[in-house]
């Protein structure tokens, strides 16, 4: 029996050494240590042995079993380590290879223009205010001196949900709401960028949804010259330091007096060309001194306070600055158009 056990041990250890993978090891384990294996068999046959031999053979059988078991375990660890090393070697990467260029997106040109206008006005002490796109009739029209029977309120020009709720047609209601919050105490110095909506037939220069930036400054003794100074500083910041502005009389229900603001043509420097239609000037925004009724409705004493306000179309600014010929380019998400603004 001793020889039998010694033989079994040698056979098993040889097979462990030869095993190339975990599966082969598993087979050795089952073959030698399993319930129907030869060692179990030896142990079962011990009944036939003498009382002196029995413990010796029993001990030897246990030792052989333990030795085979530990050889299998050691080999198992070695095989696993080798497998991991092989995998690592196969998957190693050459970090000195140049990387593949990543495709990056960019700000939408309208976002870029809004942020540029914001930067110009932040530098002049203005804050950015925002408000709802679904507005009440009161804030969109009434509070801006556009009473119910005013022609500019024609149902055709607006998207109404109910008699009292509509998509805002300008960002002025944000300014009215902000003024109200100041409870009659200035200064209020804000710009309001955002989407606005008007019933319109879309073409190269019109869109039923577009973006606007309005601004206002309410304080004691605010005058037309303050408006002109601020807008000139803005025009030079946005279009370039060599540009000048001019004011022409105009009309808005919420300002008095009202003006259209032109910027000198950047193409010809004022000489007259295709861009400015030979006038030397390009219309960029509307403005004026806030109508006393509008100040009063938003809680300001118009004898103590005055202010200026202005409004401009973001698409128009972008089209002028980047020579874009169709407003619809902004909304159709053609990557060939958008990719041109990566460095803007
Ligand atoms: C334009 C002209 C303008 C305003 C907007 C305004 C707002 C308040 C009070 C007074 Cl709360 N005025 N906004 C004033 C003048 C002109 O916009 O052509 N926008 C595209």
TrEMBL record:
PROSITE patterns: AA_TRNA_LIGASE_II
CDD domains reported for this sequence: PheRS_alpha_core (cd00496)
InterPro entries in alphabetical order: aa-tRNA-synth_II, aa-tRNA-synth_II/BPL/LPL, Phe-tRNA-synth_IIc_asu, Phe-tRNA_ligase_II_N, Phe_tRNA_ligase_alpha1_bac, Phenylalanyl-tRNA_Synthase, tRNA-bd_arm
Molecular function in Gene Ontology: ATP binding; catalytic activity, acting on a protein; magnesium ion binding; phenylalanine-tRNA ligase activity; transferase activity; tRNA binding
Residues annotated as binding Mg(2+): 256
Domain of life: Bacteria
Cofactor, how bound (note): Binds 2 magnesium ions per tetramer.
Cross-referenced Pfam families: Phe_tRNA-synt_N (PF02912), tRNA-synt_2d (PF01409)
One GO location term (cellular component): cytoplasm
GO biological process: phenylalanyl-tRNA aminoacylation
Domain Aminoacyl-transfer RNA synthetases class-II family profile as annotated: residue spans: 111-340
Catalysis performed (reactions): tRNA(Phe) + L-phenylalanine + ATP = L-phenylalanyl-tRNA(Phe) + AMP + diphosphate + H(+)
Entries under SUPFAM superfamilies matching the protein: Class II aaRS and biotin synthetases, tRNA-binding arm
Cofactors required: Mg(2+)
Presence of keyword Aminoacyl-tRNA synthetase: yes
Enzyme Commission identifier(s): 6.1.1.20
Record localization: Cytoplasm
The entry's keywords: Aminoacyl-tRNA synthetase, ATP-binding, Cytoplasm, Ligase, Magnesium, Metal-binding, Nucleotide-binding, Protein biosynthesis
UniProt subunit comment: Tetramer of two alpha and two beta subunits.
Family the entry assigns: Belongs to the class-II aminoacyl-tRNA synthetase family. Phe-tRNA synthetase alpha subunit type 1 subfamily.
PANTHER family linked: PHENYLALANINE--TRNA LIGASE, MITOCHONDRIAL (PTHR11538:SF41), PHENYLALANYL-TRNA SYNTHETASE (PTHR11538)
Name of the protein in question: Phenylalanine--tRNA ligase alpha subunit
Provenance organism: Alkalihalophilus pseudofirmus (Bacillus pseudofirmus)
């Amino acid at each position: 029996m001793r020889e039998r056990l010694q033989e079994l041990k040698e056979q098993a250890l040889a097979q462990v050494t030869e095993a190339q993978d975990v599966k082969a090891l598993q087979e050795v384990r089952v073959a030698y240590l399993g319930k129907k294996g030869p060692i179990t068999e030896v142990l079962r046959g011990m009944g036939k042995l003498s009382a002196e031999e029995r413990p010796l053979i029993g001990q030897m059988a246990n030792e052989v079993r333990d030795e085979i078991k530990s050889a299998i375990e050691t080999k198992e660890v070695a095989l696993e380590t080798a497998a991991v090393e092989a995998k690592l070697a196969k998957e190693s990467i050459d970090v000195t290879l140049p990387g593949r260029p990543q495709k990056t997106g960019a700000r939408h040109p309208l976002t870029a223009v809004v942020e540029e206008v914001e930067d110009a006005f932040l530098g002049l002490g203005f804050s950015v205010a925002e408000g709802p796109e679904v507005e009440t009739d009161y804030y969109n029209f009434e509070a801006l001196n556009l009473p119910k029977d005013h022609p500019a309120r024609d149902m055709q020009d607006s998207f109404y949900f109910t008699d009292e709720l509509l998509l805002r047609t300008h960002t002025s209601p944000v300014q009215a709401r902000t003024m109200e919050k100041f409870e009659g105490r200035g200064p209020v110095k804000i710009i309001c960028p955002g989407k606005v909506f008007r019933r319109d037939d879309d073409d190269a220069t019109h869109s039923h949804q577009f973006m606007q930036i309005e601004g206002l400054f309410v304080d004691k003794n605010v005058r037309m010259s303050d408006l002109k100074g601020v807008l000139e500083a803005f025009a030079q910041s946005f279009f370039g330091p060599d540009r000048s502005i001019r004011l022409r009389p105009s009309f808005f229900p919420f300002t008095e007096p009202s003006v259209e603001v032109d910027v000198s043509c950047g193409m010809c420097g004022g000489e007259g060309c295709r861009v400015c239609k030979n006038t030397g000037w390009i219309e960029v925004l509307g403005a004026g001194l806030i109508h006393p009724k509008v100040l009063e409705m938003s809680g300001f004493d118009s004898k103590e306070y005055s202010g200026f306000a202005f409004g401009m179309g973001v698409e128009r600014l972008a089209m002028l600055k980047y020579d874009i010929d169709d407003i619809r380019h902004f909304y159709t998400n053609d990557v060939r158009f958008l990719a041109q603004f990566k460095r803007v």
